[in-house]
Amino acid sequence: MKLARVAALAPLAVLVTVMFAACGGDGDKDKSATATQSGSPSDGADDEVKLTLVAENTKFDKTSLEAPAGKDVTLTMENKDSIEHTFALYETKAATNRLAGGQTFSGPAFLTYQFTAPETPGTYHFQCDIHPNAMNGEFIVK
Ligand SMILES: [Cu+2]
């Protein structure tokens, strides 16, 4: 009985492994970013907010992002530059208390940041940690 069960589960285990490897990207940095994913993506499609951000010529294409309080956010950032950029979310412009992000990566490439939007509505701050003066904006939580 036990043996038969293990045999039946084996193909599934292989499939999961292959899928995980496929999402891993080609660099160590990608791996640690995908590792922040929580739970199964199939549960909460409606609860998830998808945002996009493009970094080009050491500028973001947006100066404002918005998310509902407490929602899971999937922010996909495209870095069109060959130099490294980051997305990082902070409580205030002082950028002392980082709430999410911070993973650096050089382009051209995409990186997905997954985090939960702050529970308290308000205006937060996002920036590239490497170029905080040139690349920043407000992150509005409603
Ligand atoms: Cu930057």
Architecture blueprint of SSEs:
Blueprint: H1 2-23, H2 28-34, E1 48-56, E2 59-60, E3 64-67, E4 72-79, E5 84-90, E6 98-106, E7 109-116, E8 122-127, E9 136-141
This protein binds copper (II) ion (CU).
The CATH homologous superfamily of the largest domain = Cupredoxins -  blue copper proteins
Distance between the termini: 54 Å
What Rg is obtained from the alpha carbons, in whole angstroms?
18 Å
Q: Tell me the major beta sheet.
A: 5 strands, mixed
- Strand line-up of the largest beta sheet: 3-9-8-5-6
Unreliable spans are 1-42
User: CATH class of the largest domain, anyone?
Assistant: Mainly Beta
Order of helices and strands: HHEEEEEEEEE
Task: Report the principal-axis shape.
Answer: globular
Average pLDDT figure: 80
Description:
It is globular and about 35 Å long. It is built from two helices and nine strands. It starts with a helix and ends with a strand. The model is unreliable at 1-42 (pLDDT under 50). It has two domains: 1-35; 45-142, Cupredoxins -  blue copper proteins (Immunoglobulin-like, Sandwich), CATH 2.60.40.420. It is 20% helix and 42% strand. By secondary structure, it is an alpha+beta fold. The chain has a five-stranded mixed sheet with strand order 3-9-8-5-6. It has a four-stranded mixed sheet with strand order 2-1-4-7. Bound molecules: copper (II) ion.
Highlighted features:
single chain, 142 residues, alpha+beta, Immunoglobulin-like, 2 domains, five-stranded mixed sheet, four-stranded mixed sheet, 2 helices, globular, disordered N terminus, binds copper (II) ion
